[in-house]
Amino acid sequence: MDIAPDTARVLVVGIDGVRLDLLPELDTPHLDGTARAGFLAPVEVDDGTPTMSGPCWTTVVTGVGVAKHGVWGNRLDGNRLDVFPDFTTRLAAECGRRTFAVGAWAPLFLAQQGGPLFLSPTRLAYVAPRADTPEAWEEADERVTVEAEHLLGLDEVLHAGFVYLGAVDETAHFLGCGAEYRRSIETADRRLGRLLGALRRRPPHERWTVIVVTDHGHRDEGGHGGRSALERTAWIAACGPGLPAGEVPPALHHTDVAAHVYTALGIAPDPHWTLDGVPFGAVTTVGV
């Protein structure tokens, strides 16, 4: 990619449990704008990966599948994150980049349930929900958004970050994929818009790649973990330098997110990282 490493930046926004088939009928102008500036395309959770948040998010941020990272459920016990760390940790520890991660689901950010997934970003912020209800998760996501806006507003270099929004998924679990769920998706989109606004207020020389991704879908009644098409269908939207508007990659996988983060920052992944993903749109060939 034609990106100077000292100006390249990446923001990944993970919105848990957003069904792709419902997006066309919802008011999501900020996600729509990201798609128009780049692409929005489906991702199928592969046959070997449970359609659960723990395995899927670990795959997204490490760039390797479950056979390598070892996370098979919403408990992260038995993981191999010391060998296959998340991109915020690897960038900070091995590449000299400043990174951050913010969210409200404990195993991603705390030493609980086998976590944390995000081990050592430069900055980490965890927001504890006051209760396990849709309303409390909306409040938590609001505080996560405020914290991410604060970090992005600091007068310091930040090369890459991950923001996790979990209220959509929790709403589906409690109430199914009806009106409340759809309103929660629209609320998450407004929070995405605020994050994009924070990027626009950053120094003008910074060139941001934005990646928005969900981990899995939901059954109509709420719930996931099975192999139905609704549960297995996720999606990625992205825009930024090197991603032409309207050019949809021919095939996408969750592992491609971390791979694209490194490439967007001008970093050639070390072969010893053994990433399973490739940058968006990259074509791979298999030798015989």
Explain this structure:
It is a single chain. The chain has a single domain (8-273), classed as Alkaline Phosphatase, subunit A, CATH 3.40.720. Helices cover 34% and strands 15% of the residues. The protein has a seven-stranded mixed sheet, sandwiched between helices. It has 288 residues and is of the alpha/beta class. The relative contact order is 0.24. It has helices spanning 29-37, 53-62, 66-69, 87-94, 106-109, 134-153, 167-175, 179-200, 229-232, 256-264, and strands spanning 8-15, 39-44, 99-103, 123-126, 160-165, 207-213, 233-239.
Features:
288 residues; globular; 7 strands; 7-stranded mixed β-sheet; alpha/beta; disordered C terminus
Q: State the strand order across the main sheet.
A: 2-7-6-1-5-3-4
Oligomeric status of the shown chains? single chain
What percent strand? Answer: 5-15%
Fold-level CATH name: Alkaline Phosphatase, subunit A
Number of strands: 7
Task: Tell me the major beta sheet.
Answer: 7 strands, mixed
What is the count of helical runs?
Answer: 10
User: Which structural class do you get from the secondary structure elements?
Assistant: alpha/beta
Order of helices and strands: EHEHHHEHEHEHHEHEH
When the domains are counted, the total is: 1
CATH homologous group name: Alkaline Phosphatase, subunit A
Write down the Rg. Answer: 17 Å
Topology:
Layout: E1 8-15, H1 29-37, E2 39-44, H2 53-62, H3 66-69, H4 87-94, E3 99-103, H5 106-109, E4 123-126, H6 134-153, E5 160-165, H7 167-175, H8 179-200, E6 207-213, H9 229-232, E7 233-239, H10 256-264
Parallel strand pairs: 1-5, 1-6, 3-4, 3-5
Antiparallel strand pairs: 2-7, 6-7
